[in-house]
């Protein structure tokens, strides 16, 4: 797809190459060299829209002062049909290029023609990528940390899709192991307390104390009464697990759907056990000499793979550890399902595990390239109201969950705020999230979109419709504030490319806030209604293209673009 920034850089390289070849043919420069260098965007536009250092980079090979090389190149350069109106030499030999009207017109044309697809690029080349995120334990409601992981993971998946990857969203369900056994014991204790009285039944010290466990036990009691009292302990607990875990998973599905997240697959941990895949994976490591036995347990020689400690894979009681299951799960991702790249979105408390796990992936026994496994580690969230930390819901008075938060704050605000830079601690100001003014970033961006929609509607009533770029005189958009806005619109493909490269979906937030700011400046400085028809149509199209870019960005983040506010 169209990236006018890349196109401009490529054209500069081509202009300089052609100028060098002309100069060499005339004997002005040595002919046995290859001229190359970097093209960058200067911080100060007074130094041009693009700056090339080819003259300095080629000085040694050409045996000439950089400034002299630049003068020769400039003398042989033909900007005639290019994007640039002029080139100037600065400092020791920088060549500064200034964009002309053709480039600005092509940006508007690209946005206008590609519409919803504007911004797409193809750095992924169709590679099959899994983003695994949220993956909360189904033993309780989703937390605020899960809310942040959901926004970051889903937005990253959308970015990767627009960057040309074949994206798969996955939720890993921990429906096996110690936490599920403890869940069964916890529900059992609350159920028996309902049947026999709280004093008659001791609650396990390490049990789940949440109100959701009480509510689940109450549902079972109201549905089946004392049916389970005389049932054998193991059978009773399994019955509660079989009822409670699927119910919790369904609630997760509903709450995440409310949060506008839909997964391609909910992968069950239990399937790895029932299929024998965990056992097979540990055997594979053992057969290749990467395990040893100690105190009846099977250990992974992880220090030999570069980690800071070895890991237990199978305990002395015969049960496989979470670490063993995690290896099997990732082997399933790469070997059985053939993903080219896997990105796990984990909380900061998993940072050490991620480092050790990356080392594990280097084992030749697994047949996995560790370069294909990546982690997006997100820092903690602190919710505040009136400057104080919030831990409970205003409505329920209980620990604040994702669903409780969505009762208080719009999905738009939640997704926008939680998609902040992942490697920094997030202070989520609940008061700010509901404010309807320019201090609230999501409101500020949505207001810009609504303002444009109102403008288009008002001009339609005055007889002006948005015209296609080819039927509009875009050369009239020559004011500084207009061109700055167009340059900002040109950056969306680059932002998507960099966001995908760095696994930083928060770039889209920062970019769309910038787009809104540029539009508000344009709107305040450039009158539309009452100008000549040609200028009205040109500025109207610029406003429409700005709305399109805002919509594309908000769509990536999972936020709506209202037409009225």
> What's the total helix number?
21
Q: Describe the sheet with the most strands.
A: 5 strands, parallel
| pLDDT < 50 runs, ≥5 residues | none
Oligomeric nature of the chains: single chain
- The N- and C-terminal alpha carbons lie at a distance of 33 Å
Helix content: 40-55%
Q: How large is the radius of gyration?
A: 30 Å
**Main structural class:** alpha/beta
Strand composition percent: 5-15%
Number of strands: 15
Give the overall pLDDT as a whole number. Answer: 96
Shape: flat
Strand ordering within the main sheet: 7-6-5-11-12
In short:
Helix content is about 50%, strand content about 15%. The protein is of the alpha/beta class.
How does this structure look, described?
This protein is 50% helix and 13% strand. The protein is of the alpha/beta class and 565 residues long. A 5-stranded parallel sheet has the order 7-6-5-11-12, sandwiched between helices. It has a 4-stranded antiparallel sheet with strand order 1-2-4-3. Strands 8-9-10 form a 3-stranded antiparallel sheet. The two termini are 33 Å apart.
